[in-house]
Amino acid sequence: MTRTGIGYDVHRLVEERPLILGGVELAYHLGLDGHSDADVLCHAIADALLGAVGERDIGYHFPNTDPSIRGISSLEILRRVRDILVARGAKIVNVDATVIAEAPKILPHRDAMIKNIAEALCVEANAIGLKATTNEHLGFIGRGEGIGSMAVASVEV
Ligand code: MG
Taking the mean position of all CA atoms in its chain, how far away is CA 48? Predict the structure, then answer.
């Protein structure tokens, strides 16, 4: 049986934080705020994968009150999510994600992000779809106050 999950996340852009998306540090004057490295792309993917097997969300499994995961790489979160899926006998079929950001440009880093995500999830790179769009200057993302991401994932159980 194939099952599908959906994930969505937003983090605020602030000063004096690195901007990490898909495990890649991008050159930008702002970074995403959060308890982990705030990699919004990996978080959306993690929630999609957890949702596909009926698990609770990333905030439950990786609470921002847990000091042991402060500053954790979200690629490590993906590795741990994969372990949850493996324990449930689920095999990842594919992931498709979109990053919604006014700036900086995401697509020059697309291949590196896909490589990181695929390695963390132990899947082939062609199992990971990754797109980027802007918010056409509309709303909080359009004003450059944050970056969002959406993802879907399919697994075989
Ligand atoms: Mg998050």
Answer: 9
Mean pLDDT (the chain, rounded): 97
Report how far ligand 1's centroid is from the alpha carbon of 125 (Å): 23
Instruction: Find the 11 Cα to ligand 1 centroid distance in Å.
Output: 6
Please tell me the distance between residue 37's alpha carbon and the centre of ligand 1 in angstroms: 9
Q: How many helices (H) and strands (E) does the chain have?
A: 5, 7
* Ligand 1 center to 17 CA (angstroms): 15
| 123-155 pLDDT tens trace | 999 999 999 999 999 999 999 999 999 999 999
**CA 42 to CA 33: how far, in whole Å?**
14
CB of 103 closer than 8 Å to CB of 144 = yes
Segment 12-35 shows an average pLDDT of 98
Question: Which of 126, 146, 142, 125 is CA-nearest to residue 134?
Answer: 142
Ligand 1 centre and the CA of 83: distance in Å? 19
Q: Evaluate whether the domain defined by 2-156 bears CATH number 3.40.50.720.
A: no
